[in-house]
Amino acid sequence: MQMQQMQQMQQQRQQQMMQEFQMREILSLFNNITLNCFKKCVTTVDNKDLKTDEDKCISSCAEKMLKFHQLVGTSFQENMKLVQQ
To answer: For the whole model, what pTM was predicted?
Structure first.
């Protein structure tokens, strides 16, 4: 019984570590998108609102970065499946 409890605790700890890792990755992705798209698209900071072209640029930039991140993630998962076989 103790062995089974230890295994369950270990699995729970691994799940917790994976969730923490995923949260760090999400925050890192968000920060990278924000920083990179801001640098690329925002030309002035003299107004609290974005200009129309800045807004479009940021939307396009963020969409491209998210698609790229999804593509890399999918590719990574497929490669991991091949390695595990």
So the answer is: 0.68
